Amino acid sequence: ARGASLTDFAEKINVEPAQLVQMLFGLGEMVTATESVNDETLELLGEELNYVVQVVSPEDEDRELLESFDIELGDEGDESDWSVRPPVVTVMGHVDHGKTKLLDAIRDANVIEGEAGGITQHIGAYQVATQVDGEERKITFIDTPGHEAFTAMRARGSQSSDLAVLVVAADDGVMPQTIEALNHAKAAGVPIVVAINKIDKPEADPTKIRGQLTEYGVIPEEYGGDTMFVEISAKSRINIEGLLEAVVLTADASLDLQANASQDAQGIVIEAHLDRGRGPVATILVQRGTLRVGESIVAGPAHGRVRAMIDEYGHEITEATPSRPAMVLGLSAVPGAGQSFLVVEDDRMARQIAEKREARERAAQQAKRRVRRTLEDFMAS
Ligand code: GDP
Ligand code: MG
After folding, report:
1. Could you tell me if the ipTM is greater than 0.95?
2. Residue 101: which residues within 8 A CB-CB, separation 6 or more?
3. Which residues have a Cβ under 8 Å from the Cβ of 127 and sit 6 or more positions away?
4. What is the tens place of the pLDDT at every residue in 105-136?
């Protein structure tokens, strides 16, 4: 138990903060909703609400569950087995500054060699290639509609991307969501590349953007800083290659992206839905290890055996290595965006873990309902 603000606590147990304030008042404690209360007060509230207050994060709880199956999340194996993996990139920025257009432009322009048909499937993420210093380098872009998955992942504290492209429209400049995106990147500790977009417009003023971002501590390389700024037009497809090169160079300069491809796969769910014909379908991103068709996996409260994997080119693939997104068929249910997935020994273990997670989720929901009822009784009395 670590104490929390009443607002946070109320949100956790799904009640109005005002109700808790009133309840505490009734118990002789004067606290405002935004005030932080100590553990004893939380426990007092809990007792009153007939609720066992256990201030444990869901992540810790899940880690414990997995440990009981001898599984360690995030285990990277032996360093001698590590190899370079492509960067995973999110595109962020203010609304209408061109994020979707940019993701379209990259998708259309940079298919991986030998993939004649181009990227045909929207699976929530895709991999492209670019030439840097005569070498083919791959990059994975998270490409979810409205980026709900990204928000969900952030809320779950799971790190989905290594690097962020911050899109700023050159005719508009730094806006509130630009700053918000910047803060998210900072909080997550991911480096950024700034894409100054819409330079095809006559009123575009890239110098102004450089100046504005400098004020927020994002200093362009050409001003002696360490952030690459690239002028592009997503619509007119100007300098998309330059942006991809900047992504690779920034990743090389500030990240040491390696993963062990020879262990059991672990990663994250990018998005998932129920398909009429195929059942639950989940796009996963492999973060370590190699995922293979036929393996038993558990993804959030879903489990199953990988029946098939389909990539963004519409091809069936038999394995997925680190940083590769793939659509997975064969799960028992639809997992949530941002939830982790991992390969386990066999179907039995996958089912057991999934069932335990489900039971825990059910218990939490019941407890919430119980609290709500107790509160309602309390307010009525
Ligand atoms: P998002 O909200 O950040 O995803 O922005 P969109 O990609 O939907 O783009 C918003 C609007 O800006 C659309 O009308 C695009 O056609 C337009 N747009 C995007 N990129 C460019 C560009 O490079 N030049 C011009 N002139 N318009 C662009
Ligand atoms: Mg958009």
Report:
1. yes
2. 197, 234, 235
3. 86, 112, 138, 139, 140, 141, 311, 312, 323, 324, 325
4. 999 887 777 777 788 888 999 999 999 999 99
Residue 255, both tokens = 């990240």
Phi, psi (degrees; rounded to nearest 5) at 246: -60, -35
* Residue 41, both tokens: 């007060």
How far apart, in whole angstroms, are the C-alpha atoms of residue 364 and residue 200?
53
pTM for the structure as a whole:
0.82
Cα separations in angstroms, 125 against 39, 128, 139, 336, 345: 42, 10, 10, 16, 27
Closest atom of ligand 1 relative to the 197 alpha carbon? 23
Report pLDDT digits (tens) over 276-325. 999 999 999 999 999 999 999 999 999 999 999 999 999 999 999 999 99
- Please provide the DSSP assignment of 266-312 as one string: EEEEEEEEEETTTEEEEEEEEEESBEETT-EEEETTEEEEEEEEE-T
b/e sequence 204-238, b meaning 16+ C-beta within 10 Å: bbbebbbebbeeeebbbeeeeeebbbbbbbbeebb
**Cβ–ligand 1 contact at 171 (below 6 Å):** no
Ligand minimally distant from the alpha carbon of residue 235 = 1
Q: DSSP state, 314?
A: S
What's the 112 CA to ligand 1 centre distance in angstroms?
A: 25
